[in-house]
Amino acid sequence: MGLPSPVREGSGLRSIGWLAGISAAMLLVLLPFASYVAALPIIRQEWGLTNAQAGALFSAYLLGFALASLVVVPLTDRWPPERVFTTAVMLSIVTNVLFPLLADNFWSGLLFRFLAGVALVGVYVPGIRIVAHRFRHRGRGGAVGTFVSAFYAGSSASLALMGALLLVTGWRSAYLTTAALGGLALFLAIPLVGWGKAGEQDAGGPRGRLDLRALTQVGPLLVIVGYAMHTWELYIARVWLAPFLADLLQARGREPEEAISQAATLSSIMLAAGVVAPFVGGLLSDRVGRTLGAMSLAAVSGAVSFALGWLGGVPLGMLVGVGILYGFAIAADSAIYSTAITEEAMPSLLGSTLALHTFLGFLTGVGAPIAAGRVLDAAPQGLRWGFAFGLGGVGALMGISALSVLHIRKRRSAVHAP
Predict the structure, then answer these.
(1) Distance, CA of 405 to CA of 278 (rounded, Å)
(2) pLDDT at 19 over 70
(3) Phi and psi for 8 in degrees, rounded to 5?
């Protein structure tokens, strides 16, 4: 199915270079993404937050992402996706700078995290659409996987960079540094993507308005359910992996400041496996199919989610090894869902389908860190991490169930096709 966009398809080295450039822009935009997570124990103490409130501050980012998707993403049916992409890069720079400069309590932090999420959706989802269109004839899964890999690379680099900066400066200065470095994305976005040309979108769509007919299509709906369960598991890991490690290291005798910094470094190493994972997952889905590829990877990540919180007593090296497998598995299927939704959607409803895919997926992700935080607040000390990460495993099982239905439907359609 065609993807309307004024970006022309290229070939060979030129397209590879273009893909590398737009992926690098995505990486830079994400540099402030995990700065809050790395500094979470410090901010939680400074602002007097409960675990649920700390999770809510991260979820505000996802909520802004989810709600804005209902407005921003359908605009790509009316305006060039390139225009939305470049404008959102600018907004992302501004909103991420404001958090360390102005936020000083739960409510102000909530506001600026929400606004940063609004900006990010205008970069990420239109970016997927632009990439998918340019590689529409071949290698789409691998190309989208490369772009999504940049998302994970940026968030992992953010965690590692923030962890290093916290050793030499306060969290506000460190956060501001990551936000300023993210501003370099603009120098790639403008020459590579530009503003697009008006009037080049396909006719027949809702012309920039959300069209709920996308939810009446069984194929896209099942992909959306699978994606929602993916984000549920993913954001439990992204928010609580570093605090879990910090808690573990303190229990093993580390000083709090050392434990927090080391936990940020270790969690960044674990999640760094996700840098190449979406690319590998995209290639896998090009070979074995979208549903089978996603189900296989969700089975691995779900198994680790059920086990991780109970491994506090194992040697640190072994725990890091399990964490690296976790970081790979929870990231690898991201590109599969992003590719599958562009293939299952009607061309005239692509913007609205992507919007609903993003909204419902990330709305589910919004609740995940908060739910895990409530478990951490309520569960007995020795059980809380096992129960919290186990919530992610439940999500993986539900996602596999939805994908199984889609897989069966597609096989039956292939059998009955003339």
Answers:
(1) 23
(2) yes
(3) -85, 145
